[in-house]
Each structure stands twice: as C-alpha cells, then as structure tokens.
C-alpha cells in the first residue's frame, strides 16, 4: 500500500473518544489551510494545543450530527471559518493549480489499531484513514488456515452490536454517529455487501457480485477518494 501513495499511520495518534487520527487531521489542515488555522489559534490566545483540542471536539460533534461522509464532503465551520476536510478530484482540472489541494491528502494505513474504550485489548488488523478519518477496515484473513470472510462478518467488539464492523459498533456504543459503511478486504465478498449490491443467481436466487475489485485496485489513492466523492451515500 505504501507504494500506492499511502503513508504509515501511528496507532498512538488515534483518539478513541473522538474516532479520529488527530495528528493526520492537523497535518492536512496545516498543509492546506494554514492561514485559517492561524486565525483559529489566535481565538485561543495563541495556544495551538487548545485550538487543536477544541477543533477536534467540534469535528467529532459534526460527525455525530451529520455523518463522516457529509463532513468530508462539505467541511466544518468554526469561528466563522469554513475548514475543508477533503479535496476531491475536480471534474475538469483545466487550471494549473486545480490539483494542488487534492494532491495534499493524507492517506494513511494503520496496523493493529486498538479502537475500543470499553475493551482496550480489541484491535483491527488494518484501518485506512483519509486526513485522519477512518474510512475502511481490513481484516487479514488467510483461507489456507481456515480464516474466511465469515470471521470478519461477526467480530465481537464488547462495546456494542457484534454484527458488522467493530469500529462502527464501538462508535455507536459511545453515542457516536454511525459513520461510513466500512469494508473488509478479504479473498471473498462479505455477506452484507452481496445482500445489498449483489445480483441474484439464475437458479438459486442467492446474491452474487456484479463486479469484483482486486485489492490492488481498491487501495489506489485516487480510487478511494473518488468513491468517497461520488459513490458512497
């Protein structure tokens, strides 16, 4: 993945109570909107730590109210300033600087992420972040050792519902808004994905995938941003 434009994330940077990698969030803001950020720091008497704390809490509240996808697409307003939290590929990049902000995204993959406050020993194999927002999970299942997508479909979290993605269940148990539909990269399609988006087989009627993306295609930098921009609701 690192060869496809992703950076190595740090598990310690993940704030469980907020559901965000705040280090990556503020690295993105600093690279794209430093003037607005400096104005926000000024409102906190020049204390950047206080500004980061209050802004991260503001982002978490907006996620609760609007959902991660809306926050990524439309940003967050604080102290009269609109902060963009993602820049998507323009449809017609004619201007020379049309892709400048787009190319400053912080795409990170974090291994062995301990995500649960209630059960701190629970972890996920891989979590993919866009500018500090978790957008996908990957459980590393090996069919040669008997590990299949069924093991990913039911992952006991201890914070909430066991059916589905554990990071989402943990967020819901903390009173957080359910964010995105998380995906698990396995050798076989997940049951819920097939149920929602599959096409029925001619004889049995059981759902089958209409298209299967390879792992390499799914983790391409531009692919996941395009999905967040226009293919997720």
Automatic annotation (TrEMBL):
Tell me which Pfam families the record gives.
HSDR_N
Q: What biological process terms from GO does the record include? A: DNA restriction-modification system
Where is the Restriction endonuclease type I HsdR N-terminal domain positioned along the sequence?
103-147
Can you tell me which residues the record assigns to a coiled coil?
none
Q: Name one GO molecular function term.
A: DNA binding
Q: What is this protein called?
A: Restriction endonuclease type I HsdR N-terminal domain-containing protein
> Which species does this protein come from?
Pseudonocardia asaccharolytica DSM 44247 = NBRC 16224
């Amino acid at each position: 993945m690192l060869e496809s434009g992703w950076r190595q994330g740090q598990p310690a940077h993940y704030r469980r109570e907020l559901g965000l990698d705040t280090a990556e969030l503020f690295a993105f803001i600093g690279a794209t909107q430093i003037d607005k950020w400096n104005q926000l720091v000024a409102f906190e008497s020049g204390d950047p730590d206080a500004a980061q704390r209050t802004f991260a809490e503001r982002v978490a509240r907006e996620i609760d109210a609007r959902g991660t996808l809306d926050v990524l697409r439309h940003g967050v307003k604080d102290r009269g300033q609109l902060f963009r939290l993602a820049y998507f590929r323009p449809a017609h990049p004619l201007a020379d600087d049309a892709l400048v902000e787009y190319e400053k995204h912080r795409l990170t993959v974090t291994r062995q992420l301990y995500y649960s406050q209630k059960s701190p020993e629970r972890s996920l194999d891989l979590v993919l972040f866009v500018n500090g927002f978790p957008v996908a999970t990957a459980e590393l299942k090996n069919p040669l050792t008997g590990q299949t997508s069924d093991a990913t479909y039911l992952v006991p979290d201890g914070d909430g519902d066991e059916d589905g993605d554990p990071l989402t269940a943990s967020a819901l148990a903390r009173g957080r808004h359910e964010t995105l539909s998380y995906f698990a990269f396995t050798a076989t399609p997940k049951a819920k994905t097939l149920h929602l988006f599959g096409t029925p087989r001619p004889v049995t009627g059981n759902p089958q995938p209409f298209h299967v993306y390879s792992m390499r295609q799914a983790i391409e930098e531009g692919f996941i941003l395009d999905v967040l921009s226009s293919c997720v609701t």
